[in-house]
Amino acid sequence: MLGYNFHANALGLGGVLRSGGVKTTLPSLASVVLAPAGGNGSAVVENYNANGISFTRAESRVFGSEVSDTIFTTHSDVYITNLTIFDRLRIALMSATLSSTRDVNLPDSAFEISLVYRGISIDGAEIIPMLDGNLAGAPMFRDVQATLNGDVNNYAARFGLTPTALLDVIENPSPREPISGALVKELVVPNGVALTHSGHAIDVPGVGRAHFGEFLFKPGQRQVSLLRIKIGSGPPAGDTDGRNFSVMSIGGGDSGDLTGGYLEGNGSPPTGGG
Length: 274
Description:
Layout (H helix, E strand, L loop, with lengths): L4 E15 L2 E8 L2 E2 L5 E12 L2 E14 L4 E15 L3 E15 L6 E13 L2 E7 L1 H4 L4 H9 L2 H8 L3 H9 L7 E4 L1 E5 L8 E2 L2 E4 L3 E11 L2 E11 L24 E13 L6
Antiparallel strand pairs: 1-2, 1-3, 1-16, 4-5, 5-6, 6-7, 7-8, 8-9, 9-11, 10-14, 12-13, 13-14, 14-15, 15-16
Helix pairs in contact: 3-4
Protein backbone atom coordinates (compact mmCIF):
# COMPACT_ATOMS: atom_id res chain seq x y z
CA MET A 1 0.00 0.00 0.00
CA LEU A 2 1.24 3.45 -0.82
CA GLY A 3 2.10 5.76 2.07
CA TYR A 4 0.36 9.00 2.94
CA ASN A 5 1.66 11.92 0.85
CA PHE A 6 2.00 15.17 2.77
CA HIS A 7 1.71 18.38 0.80
CA ALA A 8 2.36 21.92 2.01
CA ASN A 9 4.29 24.88 0.72
CA ALA A 10 4.80 28.47 1.74
CA LEU A 11 6.16 31.58 0.02
CA GLY A 12 7.28 34.85 1.52
CA LEU A 13 7.36 36.94 -1.65
CA GLY A 14 7.98 36.55 -5.37
CA GLY A 15 6.83 37.63 -8.80
CA VAL A 16 7.65 39.18 -12.14
CA LEU A 17 8.03 42.86 -13.05
CA ARG A 18 8.07 44.31 -16.57
CA SER A 19 9.24 47.80 -17.47
CA GLY A 20 10.13 49.13 -20.90
CA GLY A 21 10.08 45.66 -22.39
CA VAL A 22 12.52 44.35 -19.78
CA LYS A 23 11.35 41.51 -17.54
CA THR A 24 12.74 41.25 -14.02
CA THR A 25 12.05 38.08 -12.06
CA LEU A 26 11.86 38.46 -8.31
CA PRO A 27 13.22 35.26 -6.74
CA SER A 28 10.90 33.16 -4.60
CA LEU A 29 11.96 34.61 -1.26
CA ALA A 30 11.50 32.66 1.99
CA SER A 31 10.06 29.74 0.02
CA VAL A 32 9.79 26.21 1.47
CA VAL A 33 8.16 22.92 0.43
CA LEU A 34 7.25 20.04 2.73
CA ALA A 35 8.67 16.63 1.82
CA PRO A 36 6.01 14.06 0.80
CA ALA A 37 7.08 11.94 3.79
CA GLY A 38 6.39 14.81 6.22
CA GLY A 39 8.80 16.35 8.72
CA ASN A 40 9.42 20.08 8.77
CA GLY A 41 11.15 22.89 6.95
CA SER A 42 11.64 26.63 7.13
CA ALA A 43 13.07 29.54 5.18
CA VAL A 44 14.00 33.07 6.23
CA VAL A 45 15.05 36.18 4.32
CA GLU A 46 16.01 39.36 6.18
CA ASN A 47 16.57 42.98 5.15
CA TYR A 48 15.58 42.59 1.51
CA ASN A 49 15.68 45.72 -0.66
CA ALA A 50 15.61 45.50 -4.46
CA ASN A 51 13.52 46.62 -7.43
CA GLY A 52 11.44 49.03 -5.35
CA ILE A 53 10.42 46.34 -2.85
CA SER A 54 11.74 45.96 0.67
CA PHE A 55 10.96 44.19 3.94
CA THR A 56 12.68 43.55 7.26
CA ARG A 57 11.94 39.84 7.57
CA ALA A 58 10.01 37.13 5.74
CA GLU A 59 9.74 33.68 7.27
CA SER A 60 7.90 30.56 6.09
CA ARG A 61 7.48 27.20 7.84
CA VAL A 62 5.92 23.84 6.97
CA PHE A 63 5.27 20.77 9.10
CA GLY A 64 3.71 17.35 8.59
CA SER A 65 3.24 14.52 11.07
CA GLU A 66 1.48 11.18 11.49
CA VAL A 67 -0.85 11.39 14.51
CA SER A 68 -1.96 7.75 14.25
CA ASP A 69 -2.20 5.03 11.62
CA THR A 70 -5.10 6.85 9.96
CA ILE A 71 -4.79 10.49 11.06
CA PHE A 72 -2.27 12.98 9.69
CA THR A 73 -1.75 16.69 10.31
CA THR A 74 -0.14 19.33 8.11
CA HIS A 75 0.71 22.95 8.91
CA SER A 76 2.18 25.90 7.03
CA ASP A 77 2.65 29.53 8.04
CA VAL A 78 4.23 32.70 6.74
CA TYR A 79 4.82 36.22 7.99
CA ILE A 80 6.39 39.38 6.59
CA THR A 81 7.34 42.53 8.51
CA ASN A 82 7.76 46.12 7.31
CA LEU A 83 6.90 45.42 3.68
CA THR A 84 7.16 48.46 1.39
CA ILE A 85 6.11 48.49 -2.27
CA PHE A 86 7.51 51.39 -4.34
CA ASP A 87 7.24 53.70 -1.29
CA ARG A 88 3.45 53.84 -1.72
CA LEU A 89 2.06 50.71 -0.04
CA ARG A 90 3.36 49.84 3.42
CA ILE A 91 2.42 46.89 5.64
CA ALA A 92 3.91 46.67 9.13
CA LEU A 93 2.99 43.00 9.55
CA MET A 94 1.01 40.37 7.70
CA SER A 95 0.85 36.69 8.53
CA ALA A 96 -1.13 33.58 7.65
CA THR A 97 -1.45 30.03 8.93
CA LEU A 98 -3.01 27.02 7.22
CA SER A 99 -3.43 23.75 9.10
CA SER A 100 -5.24 20.55 8.20
CA THR A 101 -6.07 17.26 9.88
CA ARG A 102 -6.83 14.28 7.66
CA ASP A 103 -8.51 11.05 8.77
CA VAL A 104 -8.12 8.72 5.80
CA ASN A 105 -11.42 7.05 6.74
CA LEU A 106 -13.26 10.33 6.10
CA PRO A 107 -13.86 11.95 2.70
CA ASP A 108 -12.35 15.34 3.55
CA SER A 109 -9.77 17.13 5.68
CA ALA A 110 -10.57 19.58 8.46
CA PHE A 111 -8.79 22.92 7.91
CA GLU A 112 -7.94 25.91 10.08
CA ILE A 113 -7.02 29.22 8.45
CA SER A 114 -5.90 32.47 10.06
CA LEU A 115 -4.96 35.78 8.43
CA VAL A 116 -3.53 38.79 10.28
CA TYR A 117 -2.84 42.29 8.91
CA ARG A 118 -1.39 45.18 10.90
CA GLY A 119 -0.41 48.69 9.87
CA ILE A 120 -1.46 48.83 6.21
CA SER A 121 -1.17 52.26 4.62
CA ILE A 122 -1.27 53.75 1.13
CA ASP A 123 0.46 57.13 0.85
CA GLY A 124 0.05 57.47 4.61
CA ALA A 125 -3.68 56.66 4.72
CA GLU A 126 -4.51 53.69 6.95
CA ILE A 127 -6.34 50.81 5.27
CA ILE A 128 -8.13 48.27 7.47
CA PRO A 129 -9.07 44.85 6.03
CA MET A 130 -12.27 43.32 7.39
CA LEU A 131 -12.01 39.53 7.45
CA ASP A 132 -14.76 37.03 6.72
CA GLY A 133 -14.55 34.92 9.87
CA ASN A 134 -17.37 32.61 8.81
CA LEU A 135 -15.68 31.55 5.58
CA ALA A 136 -12.16 31.40 7.04
CA GLY A 137 -13.49 29.32 9.93
CA ALA A 138 -15.31 26.72 7.79
CA PRO A 139 -13.36 23.52 8.58
CA MET A 140 -14.51 21.06 5.92
CA PHE A 141 -15.51 21.66 2.33
CA ARG A 142 -19.16 20.95 3.13
CA ASP A 143 -18.95 23.80 5.67
CA VAL A 144 -17.55 26.10 2.97
CA GLN A 145 -20.47 25.12 0.73
CA ALA A 146 -22.99 25.75 3.51
CA THR A 147 -21.48 29.17 4.32
CA LEU A 148 -21.60 30.29 0.69
CA ASN A 149 -25.09 28.87 0.19
CA GLY A 150 -26.28 30.88 3.18
CA ASP A 151 -25.61 34.21 1.42
CA VAL A 152 -25.16 33.43 -2.27
CA ASN A 153 -26.04 36.88 -3.61
CA ASN A 154 -23.57 38.68 -1.37
CA TYR A 155 -20.73 36.23 -2.01
CA ALA A 156 -21.37 36.24 -5.76
CA ALA A 157 -21.12 40.05 -5.82
CA ARG A 158 -17.90 39.93 -3.79
CA PHE A 159 -16.31 37.30 -6.03
CA GLY A 160 -17.35 38.96 -9.29
CA LEU A 161 -19.74 36.15 -10.28
CA THR A 162 -23.43 35.78 -10.95
CA PRO A 163 -25.34 33.90 -8.22
CA THR A 164 -26.07 31.14 -10.75
CA ALA A 165 -22.38 30.72 -11.60
CA LEU A 166 -21.39 30.60 -7.93
CA LEU A 167 -24.11 28.04 -7.14
CA ASP A 168 -22.86 25.86 -9.99
CA VAL A 169 -19.32 25.87 -8.59
CA ILE A 170 -20.59 25.22 -5.04
CA GLU A 171 -22.77 22.30 -6.05
CA ASN A 172 -20.36 20.78 -8.60
CA PRO A 173 -16.86 21.20 -7.16
CA SER A 174 -13.96 19.78 -9.15
CA PRO A 175 -10.15 20.10 -9.19
CA ARG A 176 -10.47 22.05 -12.43
CA GLU A 177 -13.02 24.50 -11.03
CA PRO A 178 -12.19 25.19 -7.38
CA ILE A 179 -14.09 27.86 -5.51
CA SER A 180 -12.12 31.12 -5.63
CA GLY A 181 -12.69 34.40 -3.87
CA ALA A 182 -11.38 36.37 -0.90
CA LEU A 183 -11.36 35.99 2.87
CA VAL A 184 -11.16 39.80 3.11
CA LYS A 185 -14.69 41.04 2.58
CA GLU A 186 -14.06 44.78 2.76
CA LEU A 187 -11.28 47.36 2.96
CA VAL A 188 -12.05 50.33 5.20
CA VAL A 189 -10.59 53.59 3.88
CA PRO A 190 -10.57 56.87 5.88
CA ASN A 191 -13.27 59.41 5.03
CA GLY A 192 -12.09 61.95 2.51
CA VAL A 193 -9.33 59.72 1.08
CA ALA A 194 -9.79 59.22 -2.66
CA LEU A 195 -8.67 55.63 -3.26
CA THR A 196 -10.59 53.44 -5.70
CA HIS A 197 -11.52 50.20 -3.98
CA SER A 198 -14.09 47.42 -3.98
CA GLY A 199 -14.30 44.38 -1.74
CA HIS A 200 -10.79 43.04 -1.13
CA ALA A 201 -9.10 45.06 -3.91
CA ILE A 202 -7.76 48.62 -3.92
CA ASP A 203 -5.80 50.79 -6.35
CA VAL A 204 -2.37 51.91 -5.16
CA PRO A 205 -1.57 55.13 -7.09
CA GLY A 206 1.43 54.73 -9.34
CA VAL A 207 1.73 51.02 -8.54
CA GLY A 208 -1.30 48.92 -9.47
CA ARG A 209 -4.20 47.06 -7.95
CA ALA A 210 -3.65 45.28 -4.63
CA HIS A 211 -5.76 42.26 -3.67
CA PHE A 212 -5.90 41.01 -0.08
CA GLY A 213 -6.77 37.58 1.30
CA GLU A 214 -7.55 35.64 -1.89
CA PHE A 215 -8.18 31.90 -1.80
CA LEU A 216 -8.72 28.75 -3.85
CA PHE A 217 -10.70 26.00 -2.10
CA LYS A 218 -11.56 22.50 -3.25
CA PRO A 219 -12.22 19.26 -1.36
CA GLY A 220 -9.06 18.28 0.50
CA GLN A 221 -6.97 21.27 -0.59
CA ARG A 222 -6.76 25.00 0.13
CA GLN A 223 -4.60 27.89 -1.01
CA VAL A 224 -4.50 31.40 0.43
CA SER A 225 -2.49 34.53 -0.33
CA LEU A 226 -2.09 37.55 1.90
CA LEU A 227 -1.34 39.98 -0.92
CA ARG A 228 -1.34 39.96 -4.70
CA ILE A 229 -0.53 43.08 -6.71
CA LYS A 230 -1.22 43.45 -10.40
CA ILE A 231 1.42 46.03 -11.25
CA GLY A 232 0.22 48.84 -13.49
CA SER A 233 -3.42 47.76 -13.40
CA GLY A 234 -6.64 49.33 -12.19
CA PRO A 235 -10.33 48.80 -12.84
CA PRO A 236 -11.16 48.02 -16.49
CA ALA A 237 -12.46 50.87 -18.63
CA GLY A 238 -16.06 51.61 -17.76
CA ASP A 239 -15.88 49.71 -14.47
CA THR A 240 -16.84 52.59 -12.23
CA ASP A 241 -17.05 50.58 -9.00
CA GLY A 242 -14.03 48.33 -9.60
CA ARG A 243 -15.97 45.08 -9.28
CA ASN A 244 -14.39 43.31 -12.26
CA PHE A 245 -11.14 42.43 -10.57
CA SER A 246 -9.35 39.17 -11.27
CA VAL A 247 -9.43 36.47 -8.61
CA MET A 248 -6.30 34.71 -7.47
CA SER A 249 -3.77 33.84 -10.16
CA ILE A 250 -0.08 33.11 -9.99
CA GLY A 251 2.14 34.12 -12.88
CA GLY A 252 3.29 37.01 -15.00
CA GLY A 253 1.23 39.80 -16.45
CA ASP A 254 1.69 42.69 -18.90
CA SER A 255 3.32 44.90 -16.30
CA GLY A 256 4.01 42.39 -13.58
CA ASP A 257 2.52 40.38 -10.75
CA LEU A 258 3.68 40.26 -7.16
CA THR A 259 2.57 37.75 -4.53
CA GLY A 260 3.36 38.21 -0.86
CA GLY A 261 2.52 35.57 1.74
CA TYR A 262 1.19 32.45 0.00
CA LEU A 263 0.26 29.09 1.54
CA GLU A 264 -0.99 25.79 0.17
CA GLY A 265 -1.82 22.60 2.01
CA ASN A 266 -3.49 19.21 1.68
CA GLY A 267 -2.65 15.55 1.87
CA SER A 268 -3.37 12.43 -0.18
CA PRO A 269 -4.35 9.20 1.62
CA PRO A 270 -2.70 5.85 0.83
CA THR A 271 -5.23 5.13 -1.92
CA GLY A 272 -3.95 8.22 -3.75
CA GLY A 273 -7.37 9.92 -3.60
CA GLY A 274 -8.35 13.19 -1.91
